[in-house]
């Protein structure tokens, strides 16, 4: 189909399985700029995982592309103050914890071990800097124009950019993609100063290990950052309004996960709300009460991490000026082609409904650009894996057991503990489980949940299996190398449709 005829088609359908992309009916009638024009085919506002990937893909498809990034460093929250630096600290703190508690069991002994926090932070910063420069290199390789500054709409085809150098320029584009990501969700009565009351950004840059750390919110980010500082010596208490940690996890796995974190001396106050937070001298005092109401208690800390979620970053972009529709949560409403109600304006990643994950944003970016270029893009939001990078890690894809029950589907469950996995036992790191849910009649896999070391790597065999509609028997009859952690997934699959061998 020619690009012109495709661009004039009406966009009226939504992804039925995801329920968060909204219908619009309008003509996508914007053409592409000629090679010698000052106007871009694609302009991307935001240089995070969604934005920079979209820009590179657009350039690879032959579209003249400009990416605008306010931070002055590519990679967005994920690379600069999120996924990458947190994983660096998670790994470094895990090494320290292992040196303290596990090395002697492997015959590695030394007289003492201590934390060099500045060196740990320097390693983190080195990783971030190297990756940021790497993306700039990819921009040059693919001929993506990079503008450093804060962009806001003048019109549906013009973006005014206040550059980091202090000037201003106008970037024109036939198609403009909003990929500005998300920001920390604030809580009433809490002023984040990034010193004593910190967001995840401040938690990645503390200059000393706090004696007492309170984490508000038991989601993935809070648990990961709590793990970092807990390993380094902080007394960590997690305060959660809801009845359990990580509410998106499978319930059975979530309970095992909490027990594991408690063994690591992380404390939890569930069904609890924070009434007020006061800075007192060098410390912080929190007033707590049961979520349902009741007697108040006091909790003291040196540092409080506010980790109650994230919100779309859409303010200050001039969306109201051009009439882009947003919902009550500030998310941009788009159709299945990522197009807003304003022709030529698209949105991806954290600014639209759906999981706020870097890899989801990347998939959005590629699919969006493919649609703009007259191709067919696709993202299956039911099969976006989630990973909590603590130790052990917890990773999942597909449905939880609670979701399967709610659907009224007859199902089977197969489970296999890593205590029975030879590789896990050999490396003395055998805490965890694989849990597989499959439809009873067809044996089609509905969901896979893994708690183990490197679960974030193991989950992708399951992601691929679900993408191709595999049965548990398909995984069970696939030869897995021995000894590997992945054999636990095979054994769990065997337990789903028949019986495992090693338990």
Give the fraction of residues assigned to helices: 25-40%
Unreliable residue stretches = 1-37
The number of helical elements comes to 15
Q: Kindly name the structural category.
A: alpha/beta
Cα shape: globular
How is the biggest beta sheet arranged? 5 strands, mixed, barrel
Indicate the radius of gyration in whole angstroms. Answer: 24 Å
Mean pLDDT: 92
The end-to-end distance, rounded to whole angstroms, is: 55 Å
Strands in their spatial order, largest beta sheet: 1-2-3-4-5
Strand fraction band?
15-25%
Question: How many beta-strand elements?
Answer: 21
Structure overview:
This protein is α/β, with parallel strands linked by helices and 503 residues long. 31% of the residues lie in helices and 24% in strands. It is built from 15 helices and 21 strands. The strands form five sheets. The protein has a five-stranded mixed beta barrel. Strand 17 and strand 18 form a beta hairpin. The longest helix has 26 residues. The termini are far apart. It catalyses: N(6)-[(R)-dihydrolipoyl]-L-lysyl-[protein] + NAD(+) = N(6)-[(R)-lipoyl]-L-lysyl-[protein] + NADH + H(+). Its EC number is 1.8.1.4. Its cofactor is FAD.
């Amino acid at each position: 189909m020619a690009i012109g005829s495709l661009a004039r088609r009406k966009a009226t359908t939504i992804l039925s399985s995801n329920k968060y992309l909204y219908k619009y009916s309008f003509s996508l009638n914007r053409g592409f700029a000629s090679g010698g024009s000052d106007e871009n085919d694609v302009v991307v506002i935001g240089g995070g995982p969604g934005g920079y990937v979209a820009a590179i893909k657009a350039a690879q498809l032959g579209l003249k592309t400009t990416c605008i990034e306010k931070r002055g460093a590519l990679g967005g929250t994920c690379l600069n103050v999120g996924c990458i630096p947190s994983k660096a600290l998670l790994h470094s703190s895990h090494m320290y914890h292992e040196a303290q508690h596990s090395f002697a069991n492997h015959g590695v002994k030394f007289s003492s071990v201590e934390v060099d926090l500045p060196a740990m932070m320097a390693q983190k910063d080195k990783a971030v800097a190297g990756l940021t420069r790497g993306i700039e290199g990819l921009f040059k390789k693919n001929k993506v124009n990079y503008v450093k500054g804060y962009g806001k709409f003048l019109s549906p085809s013009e973006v005014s950019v206040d550059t980091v150098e202090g000037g201003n320029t106008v970037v024109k584009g036939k198609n403009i993609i909003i990929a500005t990501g998300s920001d920390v969700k604030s809580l009433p009565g809490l002023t984040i100063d990034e010193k004593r009351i910190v967001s995840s950004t401040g938690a990645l840059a503390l200059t000393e290990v706090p004696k007492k750390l309170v984490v508000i919110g038991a989601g993935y980010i809070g648990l990961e950052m709590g793990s970092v500082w807990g390993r380094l010596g902080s007394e960590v208490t997690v305060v959660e309004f809801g009845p359990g940690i990580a509410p998106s996890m499978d319930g059975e796995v979530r309970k095992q996960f909490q027990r594991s974190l408690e063994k690591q001396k992380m404390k939890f106050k569930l069904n609890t709300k924070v009434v007020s937070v006061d800075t007192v001298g060098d410390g912080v005092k929190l007033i707590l009460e049961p979520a349902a109401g009741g007697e108040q208690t006091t909790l003291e800390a040196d540092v409080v991490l506010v980790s109650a979620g994230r919100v779309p970053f859409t303010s200050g972009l001039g969306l109201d000026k051009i009439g882009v529709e947003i919902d009550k949560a500030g998310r941009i409403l788009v159709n299945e082609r990522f197009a807003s109600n304003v022709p030529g304006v698209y949105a991806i990643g954290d600014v639209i409904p759906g999981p706020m994950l870097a890899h989801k944003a990347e998939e959005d970016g590629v699919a969006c650009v493919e649609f703009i270029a007259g191709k067919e893009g696709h993202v299956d939001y039911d099969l976006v894996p989630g990973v909590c990078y603590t130790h052990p890690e917890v990773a999942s894809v597909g449905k939880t057991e609670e979701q399967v029950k709610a659907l009224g589907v007859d199902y089977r469950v197969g489970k296999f503990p890593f205590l029975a996995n030879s590789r896990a036992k050999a490396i003395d790191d055998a805490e965890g489980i694989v849990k597989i849910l499959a439809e009873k009649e067809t044996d089609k896999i509905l969901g896979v949940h893994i708690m183990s070391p490197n679960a974030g790597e193991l989950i992708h065999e399951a992601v691929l299996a679900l993408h191709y509609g595999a049965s548990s028997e398909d995984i069970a009859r696939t030869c897995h190398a021995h000894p590997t952690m992945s054999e636990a997934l095979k054994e769990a699959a065997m337990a789903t449709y028949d019986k495992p061998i090693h338990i």
